[in-house]
Design brief:
Blueprint (H helix, E strand, L loop, with lengths): L7 H4 L28 H4 L16 E5 L8 E5 L10 E5 L2 E6 L2 H12 L2 E4 L10 H7 L3 E6 L2 E3 L14 E9 L11 E7 L2 E6 L4 H12 L6 E5 L11 H13 L6 E4 L2 H7 L2 E2 L2 E9 L5 E10 L53 E7 L7 E2 L6 H19 L3 H7 L4 H14 L9 E9 L6 E10 L6 E11 L9
């Protein structure tokens, strides 16, 4: 039978969980043996691995003329392309694109078209210097995080315990982050016999398939989305948006494949950014140098707006520009263990009292979605920086201070290994210093400790990184070469 005929409810009674015997490591033939990656040689010799390199027979090239700003609407287009230039103009509402026989012509035509359009702009952004004040002024949904999960429990106030010897506060900020992928996003599409085939470096071809079907108004069984590699991205960049661009342009020239590549400028302006965040910390240490109270409040926007099949909204970029625009979905707070904003907000350290609150803010001034790690590195940065502040207040060595608050032996081991290898505690020259950071991704993945040797020029304020010593416990390594 094939997988589609194999239903769990029909075979679950046949399965005896726990009856299997794990294979002995002594008999491993593949696990632990270095195997070179077969895909790398062609990738470094322009072997045509990526969607940007696709070149089937009859290929046409497409470019999209993006609005000058968020929310801008296209008023007029006054193109002066000659018929013999082989340039086809494609417009649907405020969606404007070019299809040409060769890539150079498409690029030139799109640049020329920018000067032949007028737009109505209305978007007003907050002042850059007031970005985090703007974040705090917005209505937020506060959720108490317990054991890594947001709950509906009552959020307690921040208090100072009676046995506190020192109580300190700190605020940390994470700016918006762009993916900055090695190549701008791209996609290829072809309409044949009223059916659409799309090649995309999307991270979710099935969800993209449903999202395209809804925006284009066709049956989902008329669409195939085939994964084609793109260079360098973890997270939600412009890959899915480029797929809709390619589909819209290919619809104007049925029977011909159309390859759409975003410009570097469009990638940085229009891809979904990783959300900015503001983190406020308060902690107390007792007379014996133990942390007796820990408070962690993090404000941020959504960390995931990936396209999904929907009958009402669409997060695909061009969907909002069509003559019959599709509204954006209203984001909601994510749940689950160590999800978006609250990923790694719950520290692995053991404290007698910890209060962790996720403040979800729905509307971001900039388009945002998943960037690798989501909220984890902002939370880890705040946690580890604040651990140093508390260690300083307690006058305890930062490495020892961390070890004092850890029960997990594997966590302790990586901290001790990194510190020993880096020469922690040995004297350093004037202007040189050494710092440590530790994390376990989602409190359940690899353990990593990093020691950084830095130099600070007291006269200029210039900071130079001299060396990083990294200790990692990732569990069993399948392919050491990888």
């Amino acid at each position: 039978m094939d997988y589609w005929d194999l239903w769990w409810k029909e075979v679950s009674d046949e399965i005896d969980p726990g009856s299997g015997t794990p294979k002995s490591p002594d008999s491993y033939h593949t696990v632990g043996r270095s195997v070179p990656r077969a895909d790398l040689p062609s990738k470094v010799t322009t072997g045509g691995n990526y969607v940007q390199d696709m070149s089937p027979a009859g290929l046409l090239h497409g470019r999209v003329v993006r609005p000058p700003s968020y929310g801008a609407r296209l008023l007029t287009v006054e193109s002066d392309f000659d018929d013999d230039e082989g340039i086809q103009l494609v417009r649907d509402g405020s969606f404007l694109g070019i299809v040409a026989a060769d890539e150079e012509s498409a690029v030139k035509a799109a640049e020329q078209l920018k000067d032949q359009t007028t737009w109505k702009e209305e978007t007003v952004f907050p002042v850059q210097d007031e970005l985090y004040d703007h974040l705090l002024r917005q209505p937020d949904q506060a959720l108490l995080v317990v054991e890594g999960r947001p709950t509906d429990d009552l959020v307690p106030p921040v208090t100072t315990p009676s046995n506190a010897e020192h109580t300190i506060t700190a605020t940390y900020k994470r700016p918006y982050q762009m993916h900055g992928a090695l190549s701008p996003s791209a996609s290829m599409a072809i309409w044949e016999d009223d059916a659409l085939t799309v090649w995309s470096h999307s991270q979710g071809v099935f969800s993209l398939r449903g999202a395209l079907a809804f925006v284009l108004g066709i049956s989902i069984d008329k669409i195939r989305v085939l994964h084609a590699e793109g260079s360098g991205c973890y997270g939600h960049n412009g890959a899915d948006d480029a797929a809709l661009d390619a589909a819209l342009l290919a619809r104007a020239v049925p029977g011909s494949p159309v390859l759409v590549k975003w410009s570097r400028e469009d990638e940085h302006a229009w891809e979904p950014y990783g959300s900015c965040a503001l983190l406020k910390m308060q902690g107390s240490v007792s007379t014996d140098g133990s942390i007796v109270d820990w408070n962690h409040d993090v404000w941020s926007y959504t960390h995931s707006s990936r396209p999904r099949a929907s009958g009402e909204t669409s997060s695909l970029l061009a969907a909002r520009d069509l003559s019959e625009p599709v509204p954006r979905p209203v984001p909601g707070p994510g749940g689950g263990s160590h999800g978006g904003i609250h990923r790694n907000a719950d520290p692995l350290y053991t404290f007698p009292r910890k209060r962790i609150v996720k403040h979800f803010v729905p509307e971001s001034p900039l388009r945002v979605s998943a960037l690798r790690g989501l909220g984890s590195f902002a939370n880890v940065f705040a946690i580890e920086s604040f651990m140093d502040e508390l260690a300083l207040a307690a006058q305890i060595d930062p490495v020892q201070f961390r070890l004092n608050h850890l029960e997990d032996s594997r966590a302790k081991n990586v901290i001790e290994a990194a510190a020993a290898s880096a020469g922690w505690g040995k004297p350093m020259a004037e202007g040189h210093g050494r710092g440590i950071g530790f994390a376990q991704y989602k409190n359940e993945k690899a353990y990593v400790a990093v020691v950084a040797d830095v130099m600070v020029d007291a006269d200029t304020g210039v900071i130079r990184l001299d060396r990083m010593t990294i200790a990692g416990d990732v569990g069993q390594v399948v392919n050491p070469d990888g």
